């Protein structure tokens, strides 16, 4: 394996409170630490003007294989991850068949190994076939290297099932990842309930649909002493509830998506189905609260919630279109636009939400450039501007509202386990 010297970069590693110009040496797939520019190496990378940081970790990503290869495959999804600077990701179990037993988890690992892009960690189903009625084979999934448990886009409606899941997974020190939504309040909803849903004549999804479930999950985490992770938080009151729970010592963590930090419900005025996501895009008031939650540590991580759909599933008719957008390849530039450029977060604060935050939630020995750590490294060009064209995308699906828009910032080069796996094209 080649040794690599990364010279003259701005090295940012929140795990070590490090932010300085310097040189990073990689040898035998591991970080050897900071070094002199005169250090000899098999390959030398000039990182002048670039940020050198730990590879990003995406908590929950839909890779769609097996069963929905028309939307994405493990190979195409992990290629998109690399293009977005992501070196490790949690793979959602919303496949067909559902990842609810050991062999299904091991299939994910095998396909990821064949793709040889980024690290993939299976997330096992909480309930068999995502039906919400009976716990999946939790112990066997742990043996199959599942790092957490979730029913993906389906919330666990039954409080007793959630209680049992939290108690059982506590024995394995694994988190439960739940999407907090009350089904009765989201049924047939198309967008955030408010002024624009009324004007546009679209059925709304109230903020309370999320907040009721957030409160329930926090209460059950307190009762069981289990670990609950709340996916894709989108409302002001959710942030407040999580903040209070953390102050009380309850084991709760949360993530937010870049699009919920950037886009508002007003965007649905165009009836463009690429703005149709779940939870729905909210108002600026909610966005402001989410940003405060990121800043004060209430929200632990930023996650793309990459949800690819083939073109026919994102029809011109918004009522019939599936929820969700792709997000791996726009993760960095949208975060830069919504958080760095306005001055809400520093680069070190942002990178921590993309590295140490998700690593701690999933219990991964990742997200650091400490000596001896796995050499998963992302080099960021923070200044480059470009139009996001379909030809640039590595994902099989193109369902994103950012197509045709000017973006700033991208992953210039990505190293996984000491090997260069991605170089940006000019």
Write a compact overview of the structure shown.
This protein is α/β, with parallel strands linked by helices.
How would you characterize the overall build of this protein?
The protein is α/β, with parallel strands linked by helices. Helix content is 28%, strand content 23%. It is built from twelve helices and 18 strands. The strands form three sheets. Strands 1, 2, 3, 4, 5, 16, 17 and 18 form an eight-stranded mixed sheet that branches. Helix 3 links the parallel strand 8 (119-124) and strand 9 (148-150). Helix 1 (74-83) crosses helix 2 and helix 4 crosses helix 7 (208-224). The longest helix is centred in the middle third of the chain and has 17 residues, at 208-224. It is globular, with a radius of gyration of 20 Å. The two termini are 27 Å apart. 56% of the residues are buried. The model has no long low-confidence stretch (mean pLDDT 97).
Keywords:
eight-stranded parallel beta sheet; alpha/beta; about 425 residues; eight-stranded mixed beta sheet; 12 helices
Could you tell me the strand content as a percent range? 15-25%
Tell me the total number of β-strands: 18
Mean pLDDT: 97
The total of helices stands at 12
Oligomer: single chain
Uncertain runs are none
| Order of SSEs | EEEEEEHEHEHEHEHEHEHEHEHEHHHEEE
Distance between the termini: 27 Å
Major sheet: 8 strands, mixed
> Which word captures the global form?
globular
The gyration radius over C-alpha positions equals 20 Å
Secondary structure class reads alpha/beta
* Helix proportion range: 25-40%
